[in-house]
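Q: Given only this backbone (88 positions), what sequence would you predict?
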């Protein structure tokens, strides 16, 4: 009986050593293509935010003057499209 317990203990010791080496994780590097896509997405979002700001200011000015109402309406459409780009 004691012999079986010693064998069980030695087998348990080997299993623990094997699981310790398996527990080491290799850290995966990020995919360069996905990093480039993320950078382009960030640049596009920033450009769309700037487009929103400029078109809102221009639309307000065109509606104040009253001479360029159609231009103001088109700028409002540009703001809506830019908001869609930022959100998505």
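A: Predicted residues:
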């Amino acid at each position: 009986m004691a012999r079986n317990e010693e064998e069980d203990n030695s087998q348990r010791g080997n299993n623990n050593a094997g699981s310790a080496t398996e527990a080491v994780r290799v850290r995966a590097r990020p995919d360069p293509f996905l990093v480039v896509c993320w950078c382009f997405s960030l640049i596009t979002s920033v450009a769309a935010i700037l487009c929103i700001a400029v078109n809102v200011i221009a639309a307000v000015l065109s509606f104040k003057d009253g001479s360029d109402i159609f231009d103001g309406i088109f700028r409002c459409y540009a703001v809506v499209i830019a908001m869609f780009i930022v959100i998505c």
